[in-house]
Amino acid sequence: MPRYALIEDDGERCIPCADVQGVFTGPEGEPLRLRGCTLPDELSGRLRAGRAIRPALFFLVAVDDFGIGTELSLVRFDVAEWSPHGGNQVDLVLREPLHDPPSPAARPIWDLWSAGRPAAKNLWAGYDRGEWLRAALAHHGADGPDRPPGVVYRLDATHVTDVSGFYCALGEAVNGPGWYFGRNLDALADCLRGGFGATPPFTVVGPEVPRVREVFESAGVTLRAAP
Question: Which residues lie closer than 8 Å to 225 by C-beta, 6 or more apart?
Answer without folding.
Answer: 205, 206, 207, 208
